[in-house]
Amino acid sequence: MAHTTEEVLAGLAELVTDETGIEADQVTLEKSFTDDLDIDSISMMTIVVNAEEKFDVKIPDDEVKNLTTVGEAVEFITKAQA
User: Is the separation of the CB atoms in 20 and 42 below 8 Å?
Assistant: First the structure.
């Protein structure tokens, strides 16, 4: 089942909170994972793996480096579900 942008954002925010303790309301589309949210590469890979399971999508390793903002990740996951 495809999720809306809002559902993906909420789910991703939940995963970020679980992994880093960052409040979910801080995880917005325009935030950069590294610059704004200060998420390191190890935490990012955990979030990616959990997002793949949660949304039933595959995020190739070479694609992860292109997902620098929350919005880019949400867009990728939304399109990957289609």
Answer: no
User: Which of these, 41, 55, 46, 48, lies nearest to 11 by C-alpha position?
Assistant: 55
11-66 residue pLDDT tens: 999 999 999 999 999 999 999 999 999 999 999 999 999 999 999 999 999 999 99
Asked whether 31 and 70 are in contact (CB, 8 A), the reply is yes
Reported pTM: 0.93
Active site residue 40: yes
Q: Which two three-digit tokens encode residue 18? A: 């679980």
CB atoms near residue 62 (< 10 Å)? 7
Tell me how far apart the alpha carbons of residues 29 and 9 are, in angstroms, rounded to a whole number.
7
Amino acid sitting at position 57: V
Q: Which of 18, 35, 38, 40 is catalytic?
A: 40
Q: Find, among 19, 37, 32, the residue nearest to 72 by Cα.
A: 32
